[in-house]
Amino acid sequence: MTLEAEYLAEPDLVFGNQGEEKDPRLGMSKFGPYYSPGENAPSPARIRIGLIGTGETIGWGEKVIARLGEPVASAHTNKWLYPDYEGFSLKSQVRCEFSVVDTPDGLILPQETKEVLSFAHANHRIAAASNLLTSKVERFLLEDSPPEVLLIALPPDIEEFCGIGDRTRGAKRPSFTEQEKLLAEFRKSGQRFLEDWGLEVTGGPEPPHEKDYDLRNALKGKVMRMKQAVPVQILRAEPAHNVPGRGAASRDGSLTPGTRSQSEP
């Protein structure tokens, strides 16, 4: 039996103005994003971003978005592996800019944060946090012209008590109360309940609190179930304070020197 192999050369990627390049980073810096021959420039020319967070963290988000519109020179001499960042602006090859939607739809009030943190159980806190953030997403989507992207500037308190860390250690391992275990056994044996026929039962024990096991995954799942799709990104406080280049957003909203960047997977 003879096997024949055929070498297929790697094709070039096509970018703006029909420019070609194998490396997507170099192609973007040289030619910008692809647009059809019948167009004069990439579309859209502006991406509207809605911010979700407290008054403080929304300020960080605005600083980060503004910095993304500016070029950042690479600190490496090998520009092939580490090209300069051109910045998202109409003056760069990208020819697209970010703008922040001016609306209070995404504002998280102190009382709302307090309610989330009031739950002693980590899984209940995570569920409360994901529901709060999901409700802010829904408010944006009720607008006649909702933003194209939503950025959640995660409050540090919610990140500490609901994100991945010591405060939520073991939260990804499901745990059940004795009542939940008993109800599961009843259902497993074929037992039916009044609510199965749409009847509301009052006067009994309070229903168990909703549980989520990972804030990021829970939020992702709830947003994906919405009829209107919208990309959602989470901005953590620590990376926001370390934006490279001219400066980074500090906790008081001012600019402080930034030397390195950290990313959220």
TrEMBL record:
Residue spans of biased composition, Polar residues class: 256-265
Protein known as: Uncharacterized protein
Taxon lineage: unclassified sequences, metagenomes, ecological metagenomes
Annotated stretches, region: Disordered: 236-265
